[in-house]
Amino acid sequence: MSYVWMAVVGFVVGLIARAILPGTQSLGIVLTAVLGIAGSFAAGFVGQSLGWYAAGQGAGFIGSVVGAVVLLFVWGKVKGGQGSA
Known about the structure:
With 85 residues, the chain is mostly helical. The chain has one domain (2-83). Helix content is 74%, strand content 0%. The chain contains 3 helices and no strands. It has helices at residues 2-20, 29-49, 61-83. It is globular and about 35 Å long.
C-alpha cells in the first residue's frame, strides 16, 4: 500500500512542480508521477548529504516539490537542448 501512496504523492508533487515552473512542459501522467517521486528521492538524498535529514529519513512535502522543480528544470534543459541544431 505504501507504493500506491508514493505514486499518488509523487503525482501531486509533479503536478505542483509543473504549475510552479513557468512555460509548457509536455509530460504525460506517468512521467509527471515519476518526476515527483524522483524529486522526492533527490531532495531526500541531498538533505541527508547536507545533514538536514537523519539517515533513512525522507524529504518533506516542500522539499519534494523543490526537488521536483529542479528535476523538471533540468529535464527541460536536456530535452530542449537535443532538438536544436
